[in-house]
Amino acid sequence: MAQGSGLFMLHFFPCALRLAPNTFYLFIPMGDLYLGTSGFSYDDWKGNFYPSKMASKDYLAFYARHFNSLELNFSYYRMPTADQSRQMLSKSGERLEFVVKAHREMTHEISERSLLEATPSFLEGISPFVSADRLGGILLQFPQSFHYDTEQRVYLKSLIESLIPNPLFVEFRQKSWLKESVYKTLREMGVGLVCVDEPALPALIPPMAIHTADAAYIRFHGRNSKNWYGTDATARYDYIYTEEELRTWVPKIKTLSEQTKKLFIFFNNHAKAQAVTNTKMLINLLNL
Question: What is the C-alpha to C-alpha distance for residues 25 and 12, in angstroms, rounded to an integer?
């Protein structure tokens, strides 16, 4: 490992992990790896990741010096606008690959508006990422109440068709979707299944290494079983992984990377910048 002036290099030849300039570079004999966090603008990251006196307007530029990808989650709560997307591209120096989480009207608050109004507005809002070739994908994260039944399957297929040809990833939080027929359909439509690490609770998804498209996707939510239900997002994702917990994912990551052209890995345990800590920890663990 080479170090110097904020730069450390992990040598895995021959393919490179595409990271921002003046930070760390990982070379691996697999597909391209994109690592980062779920969201970046958190007040409790100041002093834990961002310098204590840094203004929030400078967060994204700082983040882009440390990671090569970012999962945007604000878009679930507020419909993104094209102007916001252009500003993010500018602040990041167009160095980041962005994955944008679908607005809640598309996944959680499904109505007649979902396909007719919300989806077109969402696509217009993220269009600058597409134009700049910086859109890594659209994340469709469905709630636990989204069950495998005819109505939901029809809606999901219609939503996917309305978003193609953009790269798409689907995250289920209901075990009823774990079927070979679902995997087959996703493969036929070129949509990636999101693999997750989350609490071992009865209805949730177990840790798997499955890919259904040319790109694979892993989200680390933490294993805070106690706070998973009946709390807010900060409490639910308040968890720090140990090295041993992350080490169990290394073989799965290698397998997914070898079988796909691109692999996204995001940490969603954002409380107290734990996502940053664990992203860097995983990068070190990949230096086999």
Answer: 9
Please give the structure tokens belonging to residue 14: 């021959």
pTM over 0.90: no
Q: Which domain holds residue 196?
A: 2-285
Q: Residue 144 sits in a domain of what CATH number?
A: 3.20.20.410
What residues are paired with 264 via a beta bridge? 34, 217
Number of domains the chain contains: 1
Nearest residue to 277 via CA among 248, 238, 250, 251: 238
Which ranges constitute the DSSP H helices of the chain? 59-63, 74-77, 82-91, 104-107, 112-113, 119-131, 150-163, 180-189, 233-236, 243-247, 250-259, 274-285
> Under 8 Å CB-to-CB from 234, ≥6 apart: which residues?
270, 271
The per-residue pLDDT for range 172-222, each reduced to its tens digit, is: 999 999 999 999 999 999 999 999 999 998 888 999 999 999 999 999 999
d(CA 96, CA 102): 18
Half-sphere exposure of 266 (CA within 13 A, CB side): 28
